[in-house]
Design brief:
The chain is mainly alpha-helical and about 250 residues long. The chain has eight helices and two strands, in the order H-H-E-E-H-H-H-H-H-H. The protein has one domain: Up-down Bundle (Vanadium-containing Chloroperoxidase, domain 1).
Length: about 250
């Protein structure tokens, strides 16, 4: 009887957490939007200049601002990492994910991924044109850039793509360990790609911070929408053919 009561309490706790999750996610989304607005306002007012310049200088040799700190191989590694946030790579990743979902019979989820990421890319480009912030000229650019600086396209696109895919793939998985793994990888990639842009001297730190906030808010909004659509049968729910042992 004690075991039955314990199982009942555990079930109630799990249900409560599941019901509270959307509200927590909505609050976090609102917080990310608020931080983006705060950073954007201070950037346009020139209030972040000293912070941006100090951090860019800290990542370069004081005697030669064209030389980043660290061993020579680190620059090559960072170049490789930053390429993961390029339009080409995120497009390929998106198409691969869509193909996987289609093969798995999740057509609605595949369509949702395409719309969510394509609209996120459009938002990123629109924000760049709106703010039109020049790229930093304080240090040498270690990779070629052509577009405006704010917000960082790589930071925002990686957040939009990897966090949206991670959130949706987590939504259609029933095993907790798989959910945690997918989300953790998505967050790590997003952070590494954004940080690489500052190290390479092609973005002000506040560009990257704003890109992370905008992209994360977009991804979490997509997660909330996917949850709502799943509850109404518009997007496929997690596979139910896993055994209880698989769900741990």
């Amino acid at each position: 009887m004690l075991r039955t009561f314990s199982a009942f309490v555990t079930s109630l706790r799990a249900r409560s957490l599941q019901e509270l999750a959307p509200f927590a996610l909505f609050a976090l989304t609102a917080a990310m939007i608020a931080v983006f607005g705060k950073v954007a306002g201070e950037v346009m007012g020139g209030e972040t200049r000293s912070f941006d310049e100090a951090l860019l200088r800290a990542l370069r040799d004081p005697s030669d601002l064209a030389d980043p700190i660290g061993p020579a191989w680190l620059e090559h590694v960072v170049r490789d990492v930053t390429s993961l946030g390029s339009f080409t790579v995120v497009s390929v990743v998106t198409l691969v994910a869509i193909g996987y979902l289609l093969i798995d019979g999740k057509r609605a989820a595949a369509a949702f991924v395409f719309i969510a990421i394509a609209s996120g890319v459009a938002l990123s480009e629109g924000l760049k044109h709106l703010f039109a912030r020049p790229r930093p000229e304080l240090v040498a650019h270690l990779v070629e850039v052509q577009t405006a600086s704010f917000p960082s396209g790589h930071a925002m696109l990686s957040a939009v793509t990897f966090l949206t895919l991670g959130a949706l793939l987590a939504r259609i998985q029933s095993r907790r360990r798989l959910k945690a793994y997918v989300i953790s990888v998505a967050i790590l990639l997003t952070l590494l790609i954004g940080a690489s842009r500052v190290y390479l001297g092609v973005h002000w730190p506040t560009d990257v911070l704003a890109g992370w906030c905008a992209g994360a808010a977009w991804a979490m909004g997509c997660w909330l929408l996917a949850t709502w659509l799943q509850s109404r049968g518009r997007i496929e729910k997690p596979d139910s053919n896993n055994t209880p042992a698989d769900r741990g």
